[in-house]
What does this fold into?
Amino acid sequence: MNLDAPLESIKGVGEKTAEQLRAAGLLTVRDLISFLPRKYEDFSEVVKIANIKPGMRTIRAKCEKIETKRVRRGMTVTTATLVDASGKLRAVWFNQPYRVKQLQSTDEEFFFSGTFEFSYNRFQLSSPSAEKVSEVPVSTDRIVPVYRAVKGLKSHLVRKLLVQLRPYMEVLKDPMPEAIIRRQKLRSFSQAVVALHFPEDNDDIRRGRERLGFDELFQLLLAAQLNKRSNSELQGWKIPFNKQAVQQFVAELPFALTDAQRRSAWEVVQDFERETPMNRLLQGDVGSGKTIVALLCMLIVKDNGFQSCIMAPTEILAQQHYASISEALGENSNIKVAFLSGSVKNKARSIILEELASGATDIIIGTHALIEPTVKFHNLGLTIVDEQHRFGVAQRAAIWQKGQHLMPHVLVMTATPIPRTLAMTIYGDLDVSVIDELPPGRKEIKTMHFYDSGRPRLIEFLHKEIANGRQVYIVYPLIEESEKLDLQSLQNGYEQLLTYFPPPQFQISVVHGRMKAADKDWEMQRFIKKETQIMVATTVIEVGVNVPNASVMVIENTERFGLSQLHQLRGRVGRGAKQSYCILMSDYKISKEGKERIHTMVRTNNGFEIAEADLKQRGPGDLQGTQQSGILDFRLLNIGKDSAIIETARQIAMRIIDRDPQLEMDVHYQLKLH
Ligand code: ADP
Ligand code: MG
It folds into this structure.
C-alpha cells in the first residue's frame, strides 16, 4: 500500500472528484489520511421514533412517503414520512431533490441522522443524512467526523473515501521510537489516526489528539534543537564591547535605563563577543523600551565598524523606527541612518543602495524591501527583526544570507508576551531576553467594561477627552470568514459617530484591511498629524502604531477578540504622560469565556499574566484562538493545560539529538522523514 499514491488511483475518485480534492490541497493518500476532523457530531445512539427528543438524533426507519416541491425559484423542499415500529416522523430537506430517488419505492431500512427540532410550527427531523442499514455507515449511526470545508469540500465525500482508506491507516508505521511511546503511555500512531477518523467514543478522540498533538509538538522541538545545533557550528563576527562609548550614549539619554533594559543589553553584549552568531529573542511588553536596547546594540556594532539593519513588518512601523532612532541619535551624530521600503524608488533608491554597499551607511531601517536581492551590504554585523511573528521563517533566513562573509548576529524583537514554556517551543532555537518591567512613572491604563446601554456615557466621555486635545481609537473586530458583515458594522459605527462628532469641527480617520495600502497610510498619517481626532479601524492597527497623544482605546464587540489581541490593542494608548483609558464595549448576551476575557483585561495590565490566562482558556481546536496570534497553531494539544508535556517532549528531543545528532540510527530514521 503506497501512501504517496495519487487519490485518482482510489476506486470512485474520478476526474471531477480529484479536482475538488486537489483544490483543497489533497493530492495523495497520505494527504487525505492526515486531513484530521475539525469536530465531531455524535450520531452513534439509535433512538425509537416514539422516544425522540430535540437534538442531534439517529433513527432506524423506512421511508413511507416522499415528495419534492418547488417553493420558489432555485429552492425545493423535500418532505418524507419515516416510520419505525414505534411511530412516524416527518423529515425535511432543502434543495436535495435527489432524496426522492434515493428513498422512494424501496422497502429497505435506513439510518437517518439529523437535527430533531421544532420548526415552522411542528417537530421535524431537519436535513438528515440517510444511509442503508445494510451498508457501512459513513454519515449516520456513528460519531460522525466533520472536516474543514476547504473550497466547498463536502465532509461526506471525505468520510466515504476515508472508509476505503482505513486499511492503509491500520498498518501505518510509527515515526516515533517505540520506547518513547511506551514510556509516555501514548497510543500508537496508527491507532491514533484510526481513532480520530473512526472514533468509537470520546476517549478515542481525546487519546488520538493527545498522541498526534505530542508528535506535532515533538517535531517542532526537534527542529528547533537541530537548528540550534547547526547554528552553533556557524562562524559569526566577534564584536568586542567598548564600555566608554556606550556609557557616554547612556549618559546623554533623557532617562535612566531600567534594570531589565540593562540586563537585556548585557546579554546581547556577551553574545557579540562569542565566535558564533547571536540568535536571540528580545521580548518585552508594549512600551517596555525595546527600541533603546536595540539602538545600544547597533551602536556597539557601529563602534566596531559594522553595519546594522532593522526590518519591520509594515511601512508605518519602519518609518516610526526611523523617526525615533534618528531622534534618539540627535542631529550631530556621526552615525548615518537610512530608510528603505518599496515606496522608495528611482534615484533615491539607487543612492541608498550605493551607500549601503560602500559602507557609508551605518544603520538601515526598512521593510521586506531589505531582503530583495539588489540590496547589498558592505559588512552586515547585526540584523534586528521587529515583531517577528509577522515575518515568516523563510524571510528570517533570507536576511541571514545578507551577511557577506560571516553570519550577522540576529536579534528578534517581539511585544507578544509568550509564557516561558511556550517560548521554548516556538523559539526553541533562540536564546531569550525579557524586559519584564516598564519605565518608571507610567500611568496604568484604566480599563473599563461598558455594556452597549452605556453608549451615551461613552460618547460624553469621548467628547471630554477630545475637548482636552486627546485622540481616540475605536476598533471593530474583523474575523476572516465574515469579513463582509464586520465591514458593515464598522460602516454603521462610523455613520453613527458622524452624528455625535459632526464635521467640520470633528474629523474621523477610517482604516480597514480592504483598503489599498496607500489609502490606509494616508488615513493613518492624518491621525498621526492630529488632523483627525478619531480613528475608526479594524484590527489593522494592532501592531506598533505610536501616537502618544491618543489616550482612549474603545473596543467594540470585545467578546469577539482574543486576549492577546486585546492586550496588543490596549498597548496603543498609554504612550504619553497623560492618563489613558481602554473601554471595552459588549452586548449583554455574551459567552462565559467572553466575560472571563473582559474580566482579565479589567483586572490586569500585565502582558505575561494575560498570556497565561489566554493559554488556559484555549482548548484544542479553538480556531479563533489560533487565528489571532498566528503563532499558537496547535490544533490538537491544549498547551495551556498540558504544559508539563512540553518540557517532557523537549527533554526527549534533546536526548535524541545528543545521542544521534544526524538522526541516522534506525529508530530515529522515521523522525527525519517526517
Ligand atoms: P517598545 O518596547 O514598545 O518598542 P519603545 O522602545 O517604543 O517601546 O519605548 C516606549 C517609550 O518609552 C519611548 O517613548 C521611549 O523613549 C521611552 N523609554 C524607553 N526606555 C525608557 C526608560 N528607561 N525610562 C523612561 N522612558 C523610556
Ligand atoms: Mg516598538
